[in-house]
Amino acid sequence: MAKKRRPQTKAAAPRATTGDIPVVGAREPCPCGSGRRYKACHGREAAHAVTELVQRPFEGLPGECDWVALRELVPAATVELNLADGLPEGVPSVTLATVLPMAWPALRRDNGAVLIGLQNDTPSGDISRDLADTLRRALTAEPGTPVSAERAPGDGPRLQDLLDPKGGFTPTLHEGFEFWLEDAANASGEVAASLERANAAAIPTARLSGVDAAYWCETPEKNHLRWVMAHPEEKLLDALARLHAAGASSLGENTRLVGSFRAHGLTVPVWDLPKGMPAEDTEKPAQELAERLAEALADGTPLTPEQRRARGGLTNRQVTLS
User: Considering only CA atoms, which of 138, 105, 139, 107 is closest in space to residue 119?
Assistant: First the structure.
């Protein structure tokens, strides 16, 4: 005998309301009173408002190229941030970190200092707005507590609204993650073990001093230089193709330009380096390449057939990081 089908009931529709609906957790009841979870009710509208991907979330910030590098390339680094309205009372400093323990979005230290994690997953398509929301909540969090992940309001401020546009952006790279702790030398137990695991996984990385946003790294097979550039992509690829066709795109003997990838709206050319080539030996060749690239960028003549073939090869080796 066939089982009787239970009558289907329609979920309650969002109730008509006047005014804004507060943002709450995705699984909490919607504040409109519909009886549905927030994510299935007015939270859906809030999500749709911020799902469109912002292609260049760090555009307009000092050091946009370094923001991209710290988000995608650098394992352990910190940067002191300058707020447009100055530091609130009780907050001695605000520091951006590539990553924080337990993948916390932010942390308020016992002394009131704020650390913001950059490499976390963000709930919307605008990393800048998500980070700005985390920063605002961290500034008022209880000292000694981490800040949880939440969806930022679709009309909330972005980093470009909160940070001083003249504040500068100078990353400090670290060999490990001791910056997580105020007294790392005396860490013990689970904390010490977690720190040791994180340090073991960190790829040695250095930022070149003679050019902007170029990062050397050491891997077991070979070394690399990954250089974040803000030039318009099509123009940059044309310039790199001109150099490549002329045999002038390398950084010296046994080095080669192997391709590029896109990250947060910017193009990142990548060079393979010999295993024994340290960061300091990359400085002068990178500066010389920067001069050749500037000349190639200024060349507005059509590409030759050889240059077009070189460009096609570079384009075929592109990948995109969202």
Answer: 105
d(CA 24, CA 42): 10
Distances (CA, A) of 193 to 50, 101, 196, 293: 38, 12, 5, 46
Q: Which two tokens stand for residue 301?
A: 């003549």
Cβ atoms of residues 250 and 240 within 8 Å: no
pTM: 0.83
Chain segment 302-316, per-residue pLDDT in tens = 999 999 999 999 988
Q: What is the 3-state secondary structure (H, E, C) of the chain?
A: CCCCCCCCCCCCCCCCCCCCCCCCCCCCECCCCCCCEHHHCHHHHHHHHCCCCCCCCCCCCCCHHHHHHHHHCCCCEEEECCECCCCCCCCCCEEEECCCHHHCCEEECCCCCEEEECCCCCCCCCHHHHHHHHHHHHHCCCCCEEECCCCCCCCCCCHHHHECCCCCCCCEECCCCHHHCCCHHHCCHHHHHHHHHHHHHCCCEEECCCCCCEEEEECCCCEEEEECECCCHHHHHHHHHHHHHCCCCCCCCCCEEEEEEEECCEEEEEEEECCCCCHHHHHHHHHHHHHHHHHHHHCCCCCCHHHHHHHHHHHHCEEEEC
Show the tokens assigned to 293. 């690239």
C-beta of residue 275 within 8 angstroms of C-beta of residue 222 = yes
Cα(257)–Cα(177) distance, rounded to whole angstroms? 31
Going by pLDDT thresholds of 50, 70 and 90, the confidence category of residue 275 is very high
